[in-house]
Design a protein that fits this description.
binds guanosine-5'-triphosphate; alpha/beta; binds magnesium ion
Length: 446
Amino acid sequence: MKDDKMKIEQRLQNMKKFYIKAGELIDKLPDAIPEKTRSMLKDTILGDKDLKRLMEGIDSHRPPRFFLIGRTGVGKSSLINALCGAYVAGVSDTKSCTEGAQIYECKDGDRVLMEILDTRGIAESESLDDKVTAEEMLIEQINEFSPDVAIFMLNCTHRDDVNTDVEFLKKVSKEYAKVNKLQLPIVVVINKCDEMAPSRFKNPVEYPENKINKINEVVQYYKGIIVKNGLKIDNIIAVSSLIDWQTPDGMEIDVDSIKNLPKYDIDNLQIAFDGRYGIEELLDILEEAILDFEAQMGLRMASRLNEVVKRLAKHLNTIFSGISATVALTPIPVSDIYILLIIQSMLVCLIASLSGRDISLDTGKEFIFSMGGIAGAGYVFRLIAQQASKFLNAIFVGSGSAVSSGIAYIGTSAIGKAAIAYYIENKTMDEAKKQFEKAKQEHNKS
Ligand SMILES: Nc1nc2c(ncn2[C@@H]2O[C@H](COP(=O)(O)OP(=O)(O)OP(=O)(O)O)[C@@H](O)[C@H]2O)c(=O)[nH]1
Ligand SMILES: [Mg+2]
């Protein structure tokens, strides 16, 4: 585990090194590239705020803090494991606070992935008097903990009364705003949607349409109640946190027995069945909801390290697709297509650096050309107009004689996905090409 960690931290530093020398690489482009093009490339790539933040975040990030609210058994601990892709929620030391609330750290080895303030739904407190005191104490504790996001968990198949929890969250939100001068981001997570009928379909890729429709109805139902009660939320999503675990030697184990295992086994539990649904999307939602950049980066780093690499590569892809789109706000003609090619090559190089490989800008170009079935990056591309149009048609589908903003986004995003498949997921070049075609088509449909 340690070894793995060293290697991946090295990869992140590799990526940063490549970023730092990007300006130099642009200076070294062939003389035929006009100065105007060079400075545009530098401005857009090095001037991109998100990219800068991502690079800075490699050296400065902190674990995100989540305040979890939901009834006993709704799956709060399971959700944390699902988000981290590892069994982390059950193993760390817990610090008990108010009755019914606890703060704990989720760890992978000695790396802290997340900090959690876990509560039972306030509705579960007993008498009214108890409730008032418990509520006040809890609100104080929440403010002290200063969460980045509140996650309000509900059950997909039991329509519990949510009004009490909604009222409580409104109070929490008000106090939080007073103390922090910021709105507390609230994300509603409807868990256990694998249990929605037909419940025999546990594998998310096999969910039939009627199951998905019913899940979406539940989302609309809860959303209606929450909005009607006047609670401002950032987002609402249905998920399944279902993971079956096995020990390193392949013995499957039910969740309740995990605590009886030796520590080594608990620390090294593996996924025997992955029934997670909506979790990737939830991670994106949480990333969006978190306002603090260091915590945002911390969330990207909050999983097993090979997952971290994938998540960062995905984020790089989003950033570079955005850069391409910005550059193409004034449609890019065939003669200037070089700009997009360089932007994409940078993306491919950065993704490759995350995989532990150092590749040159030329190798990056070669990769892009091979996606479009065009050979040869060894020449000054923009001078060969015929090759440029061929490139245009292959990479930027439907572009005609100029690349528009939307098309630039799609083309770059498809290249990024292919690069992730090839460099990060170790797929073959053929599979990467298939991924590339698929990504282009998916976008065409939408
Ligand atoms: N089928 C299915 N089971 C789930 C899911 N999430 C959690 N569970 C199961 O539900 C039970 C309760 O889950 P926990 O994660 O312990 O719930 P919790 O909210 O942390 O409960 P407390 O800590 O007691 O408040 C466990 O048996 C989990 O395996 C899910 O998405 N699908
Ligand atoms: Mg729990």
